[in-house]
Amino acid sequence: MPTNDAPLDRKTLLHNLELPQTPILELQRRIDLELADQEPKRKLLIPFVTCGYPTKAKTLDLLKACAAGGADKIELGIPWSDPLADGPVIQETSRVALLSGTTMLDAFEIAAKFKDAPLLFMTYYNPVIQFILPRFFNRAMKAGLKGVIIPDLPPEESGDARAAATMAGVPLIYLCSPTCTDARIRLIDRLSGDFIYLVSLRGVTGARSAVASDLGAFVKRVRRFTKKPLCVGFGISTPEQARDVARLADGIIVGSAILKRAKNPRDVERFVRSLRKAIEG
Q1: In the chain, N or C: fewer CB atoms in 10 Å?
Q2: Which residue of the set 75, 244, 250, 269 is catalytic?
Q3: Is 86 a catalytic residue?
Q4: Which of 86, 106, 244, 250 is flagged as catalytic?
Q5: Kind plus residue range of the DSSP H or E element containing 176
Q6: Residues 195-243 pLDDT 10s
Q7: Residues 6 or more apart from 260 whose CB is under 8 A from it?
């Protein structure tokens, strides 16, 4: 028989410790959270598809192809006659979609049918106003949308839209450009939904031959003011560019390069899969 002075083994010691269970569980939760913070987070891949291009019937096929390729979220662009932020490729897809009669109601119907990945709308403020703000965001909620991006809506002037979006539970995602002041970045951080859309360059969307040389400094500046994921769009067109941007930011947004392949959903799926592989490398 061991004496009172004999050392206890670890199992016996733990068994004899009469600690309350709740603090132990809380301590474990904190440890789990700290370990989770140390794990590398999956980079977000967000393709863009124009609703109604190449046809309304094929839009759903393209969304499914993006999801099958590894998209985390997908932007569904609402075609509009004056797309100020869009380059020539997306402008042309919007023109084709409008000529075929694509409407906002078509976009809501497609969104309601698509369940393979979280879906966001990207649209301009004029068609949203025409649809009437509360009606638009209520329809967005019913269709299962996870957010709305309105590139021509400044955060300082978005009060009415924010109120309608908040009532419907559909967050607004704001764009942040290299020309934003620190004060505006703080405002965007406060107002934006579950990520911030970083515009990688001065100009419109479209493929570029190289990533902007000052992108790293821009991402670093925005990180000073937010803990939200930073997803970079405008100008990413190849897996190599996607890899380079993903090393700086939390995710990438790709539009024109997707739409150039939109007539063949299998090509889109292969391309999205190549982007997924590149940003995880």
Answers
A1: N
A2: 75
A3: yes
A4: 86
A5: strand 175-176
A6: 999 998 655 444 445 567 789 999 999 999 999 999 999 889 999 999 9
A7: 89, 207
